[in-house]
Amino acid sequence: GADLVDLVAVVRMATAQGAIWTRQSEDLDVNLLRFAAGEGVAEHVNTQVDVLLVGITGSGVITVDGACHDLHAGHALVIPKGTRRSTIGQRDPFAYLSCHCRRGGLRPGG
To answer: 21: closest CA among 94, 95, 91, 88?
Structure first.
């Protein structure tokens, strides 16, 4: 069933970095990530799905194919699949929601 989550409260209670809350359905993956200033996700390429990032607390910089985007609470950024991206916290705690279609699992020979 549907469940309502206070994402700001989840961030306030968390002490860990990285994924602090996750929900998966048959069609969707949603993760709440939290990072201190100077911490984040290293540059990588996702070739499978477009990703929506929504700022929850603090602020950070999302770099997509060399272009820097400031992500603040209440701001959203759609990152197309196949682009090179990274995230880094600027103001503590930087927390954002990452949402995308569920990826298929690994298959033999795939």
So the answer is: 95
Angle formed at CA 69 by CA 79 and CA 44, multiple of 5 degrees: 50
pLDDT tens digit sequence for 86-98: 999 999 999 999 9
Exposure string of 21-56, with b = 16+ CB inside 10 Å and e = fewer, is: beeeeeeebbbbbbbeeebbeeeeebeebebebbbb
Three-state DSSP class for residue 14: coil
d(CA 78, CA 10): 23
This prediction has a pTM of 0.89
Alpha-carbon distances, residue 46 vs 36, 51, 68, 86 (angstroms): 23, 9, 17, 11
